[in-house]
Write a structure and sequence with these properties.
Largest sheet: 6 strands, antiparallel
Strand order of the largest sheet: 1-2-3-4-5-6
């Protein structure tokens, strides 16, 4: 009897630790689960916490996923766009012409953020990307090449944030 109670209590602790996906994530990833999470810092300053959400097939090429960023400080949306474009260039993603167009579009849609702002990016295979701010629709970019380049910033093996990539992909295998 004591063994059963111990197993039951352990199961409750595991279930209590599971994080339910916000509605805007669940809308794109039924039965979404958090594959991993980590913190991005710049010169020792915490910039944001990141979470990778995946569906039942896990993180795989051609499957949707959501990257959720919870900002820890005030940042200008234009600077976020420029930093994103710089990281895409470091990864040799797209052509110079594409990166210029992507930067212009990101500058149009990325808002200024403050401590507690949450931007979610949804990778939509063969379609593009959809963005949310604090769970509300922000914009869509209907360009699969942009989507691959944008999310490569965090998930490509050559990312400049290797420790964050490892943390995000911690439990990303299919279940």
């Amino acid at each position: 009897m004591l063994a059963r109670l111990t197993i039951f209590a352990s199961l409750l602790l595991v279930l209590a630790g599971a994080t339910a996906a916000p509605a805007h994530i669940e809308a794109h990833l039924p039965q979404a689960r958090q594959a991993g999470q980590g913190v991005f810092t710049y010169f020792g300053l915490k910039i944001y916490e990141a979470q990778l959400w995946v569906g039942e097939k896990g993180y795989q090429s051609g499957e949707p996923f959501v990257l959720d960023l919870l900002y820890a400080r005030k940042l200008d949306g234009g600077k976020i766009a420029e930093a994103s474009a710089n990281e895409m260039e470091k990864l040799n993603a797209g052509t110079p012409v594409q990166r210029k167009a992507w930067l212009a579009r990101m500058k149009e849609i990325f808002p200024d953020v403050k401590d507690g702002s949450r931007i979610s990016g949804v990778f939509l295979p063969n379609s593009g990307a959809r963005f949310y701010i604090d769970g509300k629709p922000l914009a869509s970019i209907h360009d699969p090449e942009f989507a691959r380049a944008f999310f490569a910033i965090w998930l490509d093996p050559a990312t400049s944030a290797k420790a964050l990539r490892t943390a995000l992909l911690k439990d990303a295998a299919p279940r």
